[in-house]
Structure formats: C-alpha cells, structure tokens
Design goal:
This protein is of the alpha/beta class. It has an 8-stranded mixed beta sheet with strand order 2-1-11-10-12-13-14-15, with helices on both faces. The N and C termini lie far apart (about 70 Å).
C-alpha cells in the first residue's frame, strides 16, 4: 500500500478551486472574486514572490492596510512555500526595523499609504500593491505580468506559514511561528464549534496583521465560503456592510461592539455569530447583546494558538456569565499552579496544548521559556468549572489588553522613566467601559501628568499611552520592597 499523505498537500485555494470554482471567495470594496478568479490572483502573487527569491522557505514581509488583497498574498505565499509575515502598519520605524531584522525577508510588500515608511525601514527590495511613482519601489502587477507562475509547492503540515509579532513597541521582537497544520487545525476546530453553511459570509474589519483578521481567510478557503473585507471598522458604515452583504459572521473586539450598541444597532437576520475577542467581554456587554438580539460569542485566543482556544456560543454566554466556553476540539487546556494541574474551580495559569499551538518563536530562548511539561504557558490566570467551561480572570504578568491591543506594562513604565524629571513609575490596567482596559500610570517625580503623556506619545504606540496619570511622592511597596501593584491600582482608581 502507498504511504498515507498528510493533507493539505497544496495551498488551500488550489484544493478549493477544484471543487467550487464559481463560488464567491472574496468581496472587496470595489471587486468580487470567485475562487477561480482568486486562483488567478494567487498565481500572480506566486510570480512576484518567486521573482524576489522568496519561494520554498523564503520570507515575505507585508506592510499593508486591511484589504481584500491579503487573500492573494497569504495564499500566494502558501503556493510558493514562502512564509508570510504581516507587520503592524501603526508601529514606528525603529520597531519595524527591529522586526524586519529578525525576519530577514526576501521582499517587503507595501501599499500607497505605507510606501514612504516601507522605503525607510526595508532591508530588502520593496514592491507596492498600488501604482507608485517612487523609483525605489517595484509595482506588484508589473512584476506579476513578467513571467509564468512557478510550480505549486507541495506542503507539509509543519511548514511555517506565518510569522506574527506580539511584542510591544519598546520590547525586543517576539515573532510567533504558525505552521500550515496550525492554521488548518484552527479552522477545523472553529467549524466544529460555530458550524458552517454554504452561504456563510464572514466580515473582516479587524487589522490583517493580527490573527483575528487573518483567520477568516483561512477558514473561508477551507470551507468554500466568502470573506467580505472592510478596510476599517466604522460605527456608521459597518452596520451598513453587515446588512448589504448579508453577513453571517463577524469578529469584533468589545469596544467595537459597545460602540455599535451605543449607536442603537440591531443585527440583521442573516447574522449568526459575533465572535468577540481581543479582550475580556464584560457580563454587562453580554447582557446588552442579549437584549438587542446580538448572537455574541465571547472567545479566548492568542496568536500563539492560531486564534481561538475556547469560544462560548450565545446561549452559553448568557447562561454562564463571564465564561469563554469550553476549549475547542482537540485543544487541551490545563489550569496549572506550582507546576501541577489543579482541580476544577481552582485558579492557576492556563496552559494550552494541541495542534493549533505554535511550535515556537523565532527566538529559541523565548520558545524554551514559554513551554513546559503541560504545553504552552499563556501567562493568563483563570479556572474551569466541573463541565470544562473556562473563565479567564487576569494576567500573570499584568499585561493590559486595550481595544484588542496588547500592552506590556513594564515597557510603558520604562518609557516613562526615560523622562529626565521622573524617578519612578508603575503602570497597570484599569477597567474601562469603552476599551475593556485603559493604561494607567502612577509616577514619582517633579512633573505633571500632561508632560508624562506627551513624553509617551513620542516613544510608544498610541494605544500604549497612559490615559490616566497620577503623580505621587512614592510608590507603594510590599514589606519585601517590591511595588504593591494592587495598592497602585487603588491609588489610580481614586
């Protein structure tokens, strides 16, 4: 008998176009593509990547705003055996340079809004999706028309398909490697939890340099359904898009959903799921959603787990307030304290294992630090009930999630301490009705709060700038001399 073949053997669009070529694959602002047309667009991307030497193990970095073209980039990389590394378009030059140094890509893909920054930071050739009059940039379509598509590469499940960065803007790059197998396992598990219909249409309005924005492209190619792409969330236009496109699913962060509800939005009859992640969904928000008929699904996930770890269906979210539901199929979640799993109801660090979990970071030392005997250490604190439902209650390192963005408190505190008139600083997250959490700083020094905020704006990303600052004579400390973070919170909440 022949040896069994591990699936997929080729990129997902190649598999999909053979079975449903005339289904709608991607809906952009100006054009719709069937899977047959997307297959042609992926071929063009494969020509570009091959022209720059990125095939078979090379790396393609992107500095591109959210747009339908991400589908051709993602599957073009998969078709040629390249690794795609989408970069955050909001990061400053120094951080982008650091991440590109860690990647060492063969080519950087940009668009018109990011062309100037791409030229500034790129250690490699730059190619633009949009027409460009800049001599340092090749045009994507021009390169795509210069040759025939290269042969489709045979895939293995452990091939690295994506590298996504999760670090704050002032810390060393932390690139997560996600394999073909990770992505397919995540899409499969999501289908078992949420269900799939042939006419499903998933709206992407999250940034496609985050896993939450990329995952629908993978899922839809696997299922043969449609991705509808909106370049940015807009409290006025997103409801119109949901209605006009008969969207059945959408991924949002809590602040987005809150704004929609505040506007008086009610969901269209077509909408089956609102996957709510990127930060804790308050019980009040879930209740407001229920009252408005919004089918909200609180979810818990990470880049390191290819998106979802656990997801609560709407009825579970209402009946068990605060839960993110049971883990997805094939995902093992253990609650660990002092190195050992604990009983249901007891709190500890959440440790995840299974086929969606990254094989590691670009940095092997970071990989070694993140994995233990029971799997990947998330750094999140929580517990499970007797039926396996999961609650996430905080962070072991007190990381802040604000508006779907991760903020490392030590990075912000370090930036504050570079102010010449600051002697000490402590940063924590405070509950915020709009953003989930807001960044707050307790500062010691001969300085006022506005000066601290202005200082931070020049050194960290906008979402990392403290929204609350209080000046004190000394930081509260425990008897052992460490900063008492609970006391810090109390002072800032006052």
């Amino acid at each position: 008998m022949p040896e069994p073949v591990d699936w997929p053997t080729r990129d997902l669009v190649t598999h999909r176009v053979e079975s449903t070529p005339d289904r709608t694959a991607v809906v952009g602002e100006h054009r719709e593509l069937t899977y047959r047309e997307l297959d042609d667009a992926v071929d063009e991307a494969a020509v570009v990547f091959d022209a720059f030497g990125a095939s078979r193990g090379g790396r393609v970095a992107t500095l591109v705003d959210t747009r339908a073209a991400m589908s051709r980039l993602l599957f073009g990389a998969m078709r040629t055996g390249a690794t795609l590394a989408p970069l955050n378009v909001e990061l400053e030059a120094a951080t982008l340079e650091s991440q590109l140094d860690a990647l060492d890509p063969e080519v950087l893909v940009c668009a018109a809004p990011t062309a100037e920054r791409a030229i500034e930071v790129a250690p490699c050739p730059v190619v633009s999706l949009d027409a460009s009059d800049r001599g340092a940039i090749d045009e994507f379509d021009a390169v795509a028309s210069s040759a025939s598509p290269p042969p489709t590469v045979e895939l293995a499940r452990d091939d690295t398909q994506l590298v996504l960065f999760t670090s704050g803007t002032t810390s060393a790059p932390k690139g997560v490697r996600l394999t073909v197998g990770n992505l397919v396992a995540s899409a499969t598990a999501s289908a078992f939890r949420l269900g799939v219909r042939p006419d499903d249409r998933w709206l992407v309005c999250l940034p496609t340099y985050h896993m939450g924005g990329l995952a629908p492209f993978v899922r839809s190619a696997l299922y043969g359904t449609t991705v509808v792409v909106q370049r940015t969330f807009d409290v006025e236009r997103t409801p119109e898009m949901l209605d006009a496109q008969e969207v059945t699913g959408v991924s949002l962060v809590p602040t987005m959903l809150t704004r929609l509800l505040d506007r008086g939005w009610t969901p269209p009859d077509s909408l089956r799921f609102v996957l709510l992640g990127g930060g804790p969904a308050s019980e009040a928000l879930v209740e407001r959603s229920r009252e408005r008929g919004v089918p909200v699904c609180p979810t818990y996930g990470m880049t390191e787990t290819s998106s979802q770890i656990a997801t609560a269906l709407p009825e579970t979210a209402v009946e068990h307030p605060g839960t993110v539901g049971q883990p997805l199929l094939f995902t093992d979640v253990r609650v660990v304290a002092d190195g050992e799993p604990v009983a249901s109801g007891e709190r500890g660090e959440l440790v995840v294992d299974g086929p969606t979990v990254t094989p590691g970071y670009l940095d092997s030392q970071q990989t070694d630090a993140a994995f233990g005997a029971h799997g990947f250490h998330t750094g999140d604190i929580g517990y499970r009930d007797a039926d396996g439902r999961l609650w996430v209650t905080g962070r072991a390192d007190d990381r802040i999630v604000t508006g779907g963005e991760n903020v490392v408190t030590s990075d912000v505190a370090s930036a504050i301490r570079t102010h010449p008139d600051v002697t000490e600083a402590a940063v924590v997250g405070l509950p915020d009705p709009e953003w989930g959490q807001r960044v707050a700083a307790l500062v010691v020094g001969d300085v006022d709060g506005s000066a601290v905020v202005a200082h931070c704006r020049e050194r960290v990303a906008g979402y990392e700038v403290p929204k609350t600052v209080r000046i004190v004579d000394a930081l509260p400390r425990t008897p052992s001399g460490t900063v008492d973070r609970q006391a810090v919170r109390t002072l800032l909440e006052e």
